[in-house]
């Protein structure tokens, strides 16, 4: 049995077995967490959390639906001066996302379009480990046949 297309997208980016296009980036290495929750310790940073956010219908036909899902990547960086490292992570992440393109599709054919949406930075100076978070959001568009959310068209 296959998984929902959203799950397949997350697997392509950050599969739990340590594979995926976001593993091994120069700044974060293997500190990739497929979760909304990051283990905030000095040893886990810099690192990223990868998850899907809001999903919505953006069109379709009588038997297929085109959907857009927000791919959210939170970069966690320890210290007060975290901006330069967070920016470096965004460069590496964006390069990896857009490099996984073949035959006019992204992520092994799952996604028909990928668009940068937004980024926002926050600092947590009163945490046990002072750190900043850069939230990057990319909109991924895919299409499924109605009633079959496991197969990308």
* Broad structural category: alpha+beta
**For the residues shown, what is the average pLDDT?**
93
Our count of helices gives: 2
Q: State the low-pLDDT regions, or none.
A: none
Distance, first to last CA: 17 Å
Radius of gyration: 16 Å
Number of strands: 8
Described by the principal axes of the CA atoms, the overall outline is elongated
Strand fraction band? Answer: 35-45%
Q: Could you describe the largest sheet, including whether it forms a barrel? A: 6 strands, mixed
Share of helical residues: 10-25%
* Element pattern in H and E: HEEEHEEEEE
Care to describe what's here?
This protein is about 20% helix and about 45% strand. It has helices spanning about 5-15, 85-100; strands spanning about 30-35, 45-60, 65-80, 100, 105, 115-125, 130-145, 150. The radius of gyration is 16 Å and the shape is elongated. The mean pLDDT is about 95.
Which helices and strands occur, and which strands form pairs?
Elements: H1 5-14, E1 32-33, E2 47-60, E3 64-78, H2 83-99, E4 101-102, E5 105-106, E6 113-124, E7 131-145, E8 148-152
Parallel strand pairs: 1-2
Antiparallel strand pairs: 2-3, 3-7, 4-5, 6-7, 7-8
Which features would summarize this protein structure in a list?
153 residues, alpha+beta, two-stranded antiparallel ribbon, six-stranded mixed sheet
Compact overview of the structure:
The chain has 153 residues and is of the alpha+beta class. Helices cover 18% and strands 44% of the residues. The protein is built from 2 helices and 8 strands.
């Amino acid at each position: 049995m296959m998984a929902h297309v959203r799950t397949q997208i997350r697997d392509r980016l950050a599969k739990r077995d340590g594979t995926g296009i976001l593993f091994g980036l120069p700044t974060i290495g293997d500190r990739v967490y497929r979760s909304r929750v990051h283990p905030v310790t000095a040893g886990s940073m810099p690192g990223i959390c990868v998850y899907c956010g809001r999903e919505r219908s953006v069109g379709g036909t009588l038997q297929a639906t085109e959907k857009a899902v927000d791919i959210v990547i939170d970069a966690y960086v320890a210290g007060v001066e975290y901006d330069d490292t967070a920016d470096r992570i965004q460069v590496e992440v964006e390069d990896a996302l857009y490099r996984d393109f073949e035959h006019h599709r992204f992520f092994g054919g799952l996604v028909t379009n990928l668009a940068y949406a937004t980024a926002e930075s926050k600092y947590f100076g009163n945490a046990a480990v002072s750190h900043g978070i850069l939230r990057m959001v990319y909109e991924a568009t895919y299409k499924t046949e109605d009633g079959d959310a496991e197969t990308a068209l």
